[in-house]
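Project outcomes to date are best conveyed with an example. Our students and postdoctoral researchers have been running inverse folding experiments weekly, and each run begins with a structure described purely in tokens. The record below, which covers 74 residues, was selected by the lab manager from last quarter's runs and is presented without edits.
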């Protein structure tokens, strides 16, 4: 099975994925210059994914844009 890029129409073995996480850091600054930071994950936290073709500059947030072809297709 392979993917077809909707832009360049290349037959590709895999689609590249960028993962973005939203993490907020909050902390305290002291008079002597020390700073302490804590990681805070917001309640509405969502991971975001961007999918891209390794052969061209096509990027999308919908993995369904890449058509699956070949044997074993669901």
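After processing, the design step wrote out the following sequence:
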């Amino acid at each position: 099975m392979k993917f077809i890029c909707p832009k360049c129409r290349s037959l590709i073995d895999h689609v590249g994925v960028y993962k973005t996480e939203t993490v907020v850091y909050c902390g305290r600054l002291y008079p002597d210059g020390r700073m302490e930071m804590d990681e805070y994950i917001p309640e509405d936290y969502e991971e975001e994914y961007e999918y891209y073709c390794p052969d061209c500059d096509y990027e999308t947030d919908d993995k369904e844009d890449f058509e699956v072809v070949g044997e074993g297709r669901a």
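The radius of gyration is 20 Å. The chain is about 0% helix and 45% strand. The training component of this project remains on track.
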